[in-house]
Amino acid sequence: MFRATLKSLLARKVRLILSGLAVVLGVMFVSGAFVLTDTLGRSFDSVFADGFSEIDVNVAAKPKVELNEMEGEQTSAPLPAALVDRVKQVPGVASATGIVNADGARVIGSNGKVVSSFGPPQLGENWTGESDLLQLREGRAPQAEDEIVINKSLATTAKVQVGQKVGVLTAFESKKRDFTLVGILGYSGDRDSIGGVNEVFFTTPVAQRLMLGQPDTFSSITVSAADGVSDEKLRDDVARTLGADFDVKTGEQVAADASASLKEGLSFFNKILLGFAAVALLVGTFLILNTFSIIVAQRTRELALMRAIGASGRQIIGSVVLEAIAVGLIASVLGLAAGIGVGALLAFLFGKLAGGLTLAGIGVPAAAVIGSFGVGLVITVVAALLPALRASRIPPIAAMQDVATPDRPLTKITVTGSVVTGIGAVLLFLGLSGNADGQTLPTILGGVLFAFIGVALLTPLISRPVVSLLGAIFSWSVPGKLGRLNSGRNPRRTAITAAALMVGIALVTGVTVILDSAKGSISALAQDTIKAELVIAGVQGGPRPPSFDPGVLDQAKALPGVQLVDGEYGDMARVDGESTWVAASSDVASLRQIFGAKATAGDIDRLGPTQMLASSDTATSRGWSVGSTVNVQLTRGEARTYTVSGIYESSQLTNPVTLPPAAAKDFAIPQPIQGFIQLAPGARVADVQPQVEALLADSPEVSVADRDAFIEQQTSSLDGLLTMIQILLALAIIIAVLGIINTLALSVLERTRELGLLRAIGLRRGQTMGMITVEAVVISVFGALLGVAVGTGLGAAVVEALKDEGITDLILPWGQMGLFLGLAAIIGVVAAVLPAIRAARINVLGAIAHD
Amino acid sequence: MTATVGQQAQAAARANDVWKVYGSGEAQVIALRGVSAEFERGRFTAIMGPSGSGKSTLMHCLAGLDSVTRGTVQIGETTVTGLGDAGLTKLRRDKVGFIFQQFNLLPTLTAKENILLPLSIAGRKPDPAWYDTVINTVGLRDRLDHRPAQLSGGQQQRVACARALVSRPEVIFADEPTGNLDSRSGAEVLGFLRNSVREHGQTIVMVTHDPTAAAYADRVVFLADGEIVSELIEPTAETVLDTMKKLDTPAEVGN
Ligand SMILES: Nc1ncnc2c1ncn2[C@@H]1O[C@H](COP(=O)(O)OP(=O)(O)OP(=O)(O)O)[C@@H](O)[C@H]1O
Ligand SMILES: [Mg+2]
């Protein structure tokens, strides 16, 4: 029996390759995600281990506001310089050096643009001499106020040479300041950067002033141990001397902590990739189910013969499942291997993008292997179970009857489909209306999954009228008519094939509907509320938003034709103990006018130095009213108490909390990140814009745009997100295309005799190919139609649920939907190529004699 | 009429007042109308009759491939009627062998593998001596490693016969085993079937259209319109043909 199974598997290897390929692609996604994140994780480990290798013990102040990876970069508070001497007194300390090391040193390249790191920090530091890790490649150390040294990869990207004047923006100065580049440094092992980090070294006083904003302070103190003193002992001694206000860690700990926080982000990334893998595998499941169903149908007589000569139902199930296990195993192995390749390739690309991250060797984590085999085997076996069950029900008498298995009625499948769709709808409703007891995301995902499976089950019923309607388009020619009849002849087969395509297209459509609606709603709101004709802002490339020189705000105010100017600052702060985004406005009265804000309580037109404004939503949720006192801890400085003096009506565009302008100096970025300019009546945008542009000459991170361009720029990040999601979902669509190819190939094989007959009575090769192509196009367009319909439904449901979050307009992407349908037609043609060639090549005599 | 020949030996298969009705209402077809018959051990019985007379239906019912509407069927000691799937599977494994008109062999297996398939499905080892005997009788020793596609129709049918024989079933049912063969290959297969009855005491029930084929049997049972209408012992091609002619005439008049 085992042997018979294997033999029949081998004999049908071509048919199984395609369905196996679906599993291979899905598994590839899974193992690729694990390999990528594992490799990057270990690379970060080694980068940080390297970066902190020279440190025995590190002393830093506790951060004022602790942030997780999702909330942004954490900034630690500066240490007083006098602390260095206290540390030196601790027995066992060989030396202690004050270090300035902060993000936000942005070099302006020879093209006048700010060099971006696309992720890794851009550190501004004080020069403390060469070390084992870090050596000057060219030039000398910075000695004067206006001298800097930068690392080699930064110099290469910025295209600057030793001796040149180089403009730098610093953490506390978003106005360009010129320095003379006196040296270029590199790292041990002939590296030009460590993990893509850009480094700019100043003299210590300059670094303190520009990167920390205060003289005589340091970011941290690096301590080296005297001979014979262990790092751990030294750490404990230093910690005891300094007290609880400081973080004292060994170099190893610092490296591990820094790496751990990045890895938190990586594991989130991994989960997203696995989510897309799940979609691909869902589609793959449909495909495998279909393939096995067709194979079982084609083997009806063979299986019946086995039953007639004594095989039990269980043995038949066993033989189909065994086949599935074999396919699943092989596909898992191949998928794992392909995933390792893809993961390595992506890690390589990522390393390049992140400015030369030195990759740790590609490793295969256990999770990748377990995930691959688990997923590959389980999916294949589960998908084969239904067909196996059906195979076991084939009566032995079928071996003697020439009749094809009659079309089973669709009642049962339709009822099941309706029930499953109903469950999906209920879950979606519960999840979207927020009645899911804190299980919102799982409930929504479950709802989507059930909806997909339910619709897939209903597809055979829907396919009858839709397919015959679609096919009517092609019925003017004989091959077209035959193709149409063929696509309607096995509703289940057509349905599952189309359903596989539906999943991918529905998700893409749904996401497009949601994002377009979000974008449209926010744009419309912005158009309605923002009364500034000009906006100063930049496009964010890394973790740090672009900022500009606050002096520009006053200069702009003085320009002829300018009426109001408002500069916006922002910071992630702790407000009454909760992480909250707080803003500061250079001029709240202008802010109110420019945004047409309405007060719901108190006065929002002025703000004293200890007063704050809150949005109505925030005030409600925190229980604030005018006169409430609120404790605010900003990134820098001491916690302060503010009194709520006014509450404004919430909208998508309002900040939860607005502080007076003086608070901005304690923000992580103490410069404005957006500026709004309202013109005087009669002033023309075209006149004022160039003048503002001139003011921004020394703030190259930002530019001035008119309102429409600004809104477009701000919402364009949604476009990027959409493109990324579409690319990731493309895999699901590719798998669905494989499904169409597979179904067609199997159908061609099944109809060998019939095709031979058609050819014998005069159907030309081209006509044969046309017939197969029409069948494919009808199936794929049907799938796309379903997908667009289901996706629009899902998207509309989500948009409806997000009404309260400000997504008020439902925007249907008609253009995109049309594109999907057109694309589906092309997919059909492409999918038909191979099966059509095969059908056209059928040997007429052989096909008629074919048994 | 009931066929009651051969009371001496115990029957290998027996039908008691078997009715088989397909469909209902307008589309109702009564394929068998109260057929009772016994098929003795160690005998070669042919079933004949005009097309549509119910031959295949009777055979399927006897073999437990199809359920009966009324009446009972027995194979050896076992009452087939009322058996569940597990019981029927066991019956097919242990007591029944089949030879069909076509599609007898799995195309992916070699001749030898096809022959041994019922045993390997049942998880049994072949009796080597009996296996040798069977192979010698079918005369396919040099073709054992060939696939069905590489064998002629007659050779394929002989492989099918060998497969039915190798597990020594209580009874072998054959539905027009020579229907697709030319007369020479047909004769080979029939001769082989008769030998297995004569020399090894196998019981065979064969449905056929062909009087020459029927002449190989020890006894012929004639069906018309779902009823047994006649029977011949030690038939020859001529006596069979005569009986057939007699059966055909009233049927045509009836239509
Ligand atoms: N599955 C079925 N459904 C309905 N009627 C059937 C079915 N199978 C057979 N019949 C009918 O039962 C009657 C007997 O059929 P059966 O196949 O037994 O005839 P037969 O004697 O074997 O004929 P032939 O010599 O042509 O093979 C016929 O009238 C046939 O139409
Ligand atoms: Mg028949």
Outline the secondary-structure elements:
The complex is a heterodimer of chains A (851) and B (255).
Chain A: H1 2-11, H2 13-51, E1 57-61, E2 79-80, H3 82-89, E3 93-99, E4 101-103, E5 106-107, E6 122-126, E7 134-139, E8 147-151, H4 152-158, E9 165-170, E10 173-187, E11 198-202, H5 204-212, E12 217-218, E13 220-225, H6 231-242, E14 246-250, H7 251-298, H8 300-308, H9 313-353, H10 366-392, H11 411-432, H12 440-472, H13 478-487, H14 491-529, E15 534-537, H15 551-558, E16 562-575, E17 578-585, H16 588-595, E18 599-602, E19 611-615, H17 616-622, E20 629-633, E21 640-648, E22 657-659, E23 674-679, H18 685-695, E24 703-706, H19 707-750, H20 752-760, H21 765-801, H22 814-840, H23 844-849
Parallel strand pairs in A: 6-11, 8-10, 17-22, 19-21
Antiparallel strand pairs in A: 1-13, 1-14, 2-12, 3-13, 4-6, 5-9, 7-10, 8-11, 9-10, 15-23, 15-24, 16-17, 16-20, 16-23, 18-21, 19-22, 20-21
Helix pairs in contact in A: 1-9, 2-7, 2-9, 2-10, 2-19, 7-10, 7-14, 7-19, 9-10, 11-12, 12-13, 12-14, 12-21, 13-21, 14-19, 14-21, 19-21, 19-22, 21-22
Chain B: E1 11-22, E2 29-40, E3 44-48, H1 55-62, E4 70-75, E5 78-79, H2 85-94, E6 96-99, H3 111-122, H4 128-138, H5 153-166, E7 171-175, H6 183-200, E8 204-207, H7 211-214, E9 219-224, E10 227-233, H8 237-254
Parallel strand pairs in B: 3-8, 3-9, 6-7, 7-8
Antiparallel strand pairs in B: 1-2, 1-4, 4-5, 9-10
Helix pairs in contact in B: 3-5, 4-5, 5-6
Magnesium ion binds next to helix 1 of chain B.
